Amino acid sequence: MKIQTKVLDRLEDIPVVGSVAKVVKANMGILIGFLVLLVFLSIFAENFLSWANIVNLMRSVSTNAILAIGVMLSIMLAGIDLTCGALVALSGVVAVLSMSQFGMPLPVALLFGIAIGLVVGLLNGVIIAYTGIHPFVVTLAMQSICRGAAYLAAGGKPVTVRNEAFTALGNGYLGPIPLPVIYMLVLFFLLYLLLNKTRLGRHIYALGGNPTAAKYSGINVTRVKVFVWAVSGLLAAFAGVVLASRMSSGQPTSGVGYETDAIAAAVIGGTSMYGGVGRTSGVFIGVLIIGMISNGLNLLHVNSFWQYVIKGIIIIVAVYFDMRKNKGNVRTGF
């Protein structure tokens, strides 16, 4: 490992190659895990490397990736967002109902569905920032509210719509690349710009690393908290609309367990549960690992129930190593 690190140190001074070397160096551990998993599934899972399966894998991880971006930001503030899975269902149901029941034009229906996520995210952020209630409790309660609202709005059953333009949003292609993958890549790029090129990004790192110091250094702590949870809600709603487009229906049962995958991807990608630490590239690789595990286990005909068990174990192991890494620097509260 030391030899590889020295080689990467020398490559960092070379234009373009240096950027890649920095990413590899920062994510060395998770990249090794990714490659081991890739080789294992390539050998033992039939058709894993086929083009059709790769396209299917990338399309399926795109929803989780969009959720993981928002969840990553909340974890960077030593919080969490458990609402995102239920918001996927609610936003999809609202968007489809807006077209099928109320006859809204497609752009208006999409904005309506996505706006639901923004409103819920703002509510989460305001409650967390102004009351001091831990994000776990607030987002858990809001998860129940959103799931119930989705069932009530849909009458407890899936709602469908026939609209080719809507269906194309989740099933279309740009060249050989599925549109949801394009959305995912664009959003990861915007996340990179936010965290690395803006003052707000630096404030998120500062607030997550040391809330007291951030407050006394003049950072508007309340505004940053509200912004983070609002963005998380907005992204969850966008993912819900895209998923509803893929299924040509809004389903109140969709999104169950999605928050688990998003949290797992963020934590595996190096986002610290104690706040202040998170890398865009790491979360992207984490999303791929979670997607490959689900895809690979399906190809290996492993019972889907075991997938929940395996992902739970992965989260515990990732948090354990995060605790060891931050030993002596652990803080509690929000």
From TrEMBL:
Annotated transmembrane regions: 28-45, 65-97, 109-133, 177-195, 226-244, 256-275, 282-299, 305-321
Subcellular localization, as worded in the UniProt entry: Cell membrane
Classification via Pfam families: BPD_transp_2
Keyword Nuclease carried by entry: no
Residues spanning the signal sequence: none
Classification via InterPro entries: ABC_transp_permease (IPR001851)
GO molecular function list: transmembrane transporter activity
Membrane topology listed for this record: Multi-pass membrane protein
Keyword field: Cell membrane, Membrane, Transmembrane, Transmembrane helix
Name of this protein: Ribose ABC transporter permease
Cellular compartments per GO CC: plasma membrane
Species: Bifidobacterium lemurum
